[in-house]
Amino acid sequence: MAENSPEGARLDDPAEIGRRVLRLRTERGLTQRQLAEPAYTPAYVSTLESGKVRPSEAALRHLAGRLGVGYEELATGRPARLATDLRLRLTDARRALATGAPEDAAAVFRALHEEAVAHGLVPEQATALQGLGDCLLESGELTDARDCFAAVERLLADEPLPRRVPAIRGRATAHLLTGELRYACYLLETTLDELDAAGLHDPDALLLLYTASIAPYMDMGAHARAAHAAELALALAPRVSDPALVAHMHRGVARTLIAEGRTAEADASLAKAQELYRQLHIRTELAHCHWMRGYVHAQDGDLEGAESELRTARDMLASKRAALFTEQVEVELADVLRRRGKTAEAEALLRPLLTSGADGAGTGPLGAERGAVHAGGAHRLLGLIAEERGDTESAEEHYCAALSLLERSSAAGDLADLCRLLGDLLRRTGRVEAALDAYRTGLGHRAAPGTTTLGPAPATPPL
Asked: How buried is residue 68: exposed, middle or buried, by Cβ count under 10 Å (0-12/13-18/19+)?
């Protein structure tokens, strides 16, 4: 039970209950005899008010009836229907996050968390912190988001593991956005194994974990494992009633379909997700669907369609003030703009996003501790632009900065491509040995596509 008095007394502490009974009796102008009779004695009420005895449930129900308050309010100090009202306001805050700016919703979640703490409502504390963590993910405050999700896990430590899965998934997502792909996989896979070992095959929890694992698997080059997670997620979907979970699953599965060249199926999967998000009025996730569809068009060579979808995604995310996601979309939009010959516009979009210096240190929005994979992608693009205009020195600096960022994140596919670009540049400038080293680095990362770097795959649940 949470604390609510200055001395840190528990809400159900006999002294707290005694003070509560004394206050309510005095406010109503009742004597101890009037409050006690006919079931109890004035001496019992006196002993109770002094905190020397813990009243039974029957005694509290008698006293509550005489005082004209609810049993729960007398026992805990919580106003009647407080928990129900708080849960309704938490739902409203979640709706505000779906349709508005994350920092506005964050302020509401913080206030509701303080209220839940004051009244010792642990489940509502956890719900408020989960919502606050989701707000911080959107706004790019990844360290604070991780702290919120970890606090939720501590609050729910005695609850069944499926109750903690949303917080674990949130923490894994924060690590993914930071660029810690391997640790994100570790968190998700460990939880899947724990659920299986305990026989807790909860469809919602499993779908959340398998869907969340697709992105880090793909970034690490573990395409087979990502495809298997997508298959399991599709098998679980009919057993899940939450449309937001199903929509998120369709968006994740689309990424594996794109990697397999099945772009028509990927587009169909994204269309399903978009329709669900529209019905639910979840603007951030709807923007992510436009973002992914832009990627699909780019893969198909439809650069004009890709640019349109990515601009839509960027505008939607910017209007939501979802800072980190907006910056990540801008990197992918810059790639399409460069491929369309709009080099100056692409470069103007990229430079404000980046930290200064080839080591990734500096003050830009993206860097080693925030969006490392996209920061590496931005440096790669600036390297390509520099190389196209003949500035090999600047190109090499950007490629090396990208290499430093991507090596920390273990993004195998991106690393291999970058090492090829750097090796080609070094070879053209006459540094053959250095070029060979770059190629070997790329091949080394490509030779460890996930099945060797991640350890055994998590157990497959009975479906």
From this structure: exposed
Q: How far is CA 416 from CA 331, 378, 406, 435, 444, in A?
A: 19, 16, 10, 13, 8
H helices present in 70-160, as ranges: 71-76, 82-99, 102-118, 122-139, 142-155
Query: What is the biggest distance separating any 2 CA atoms in the chain, rounded to whole angstroms?
Result: 102
The answer for residues whose C-beta is within 8 angstroms of residue 86's C-beta and 6 or more apart is 112, 115, 116, 119, 121, 124
What whole-number distance in Å separates Cα of residue 353 and Cα of residue 366?
Answer: 6
Sorted by sequence, the CB contacts under 8 Å of residue 181 that are 6+ apart come out as 175, 216, 219, 220, 373, 409, 410, 411
Tokens of 111: 């206030």
Positive or negative, the Cα torsion across 206, 212, 214, 217? negative
CA 182/CA 450 separation, integer angstroms: 9
pLDDT digits (tens, 9 = 90+) for 281-321: 888 999 999 999 999 899 888 999 999 999 999 999 999 98
pLDDT at 453: 42
**Could you tell me the two tokens for 354?**
């980046």
- Polymer length in residues for the chain: 463
Q: Is the pTM of this model over 0.85?
A: no
- How far the first Cα of the chain sits from its last, in Å, is 38
**What domains appear along the chain, each with residue ranges and CATH number?**
14-77 (1.10.260.40), 81-159 (1.25.40.10), 371-446 (1.25.40.10)
When pLDDT is averaged across residues 345-362 and rounded to a whole number, the result is 72
Contacts of 378 (CB under 8 A, 6+ apart): 331, 334, 350, 353, 354, 366
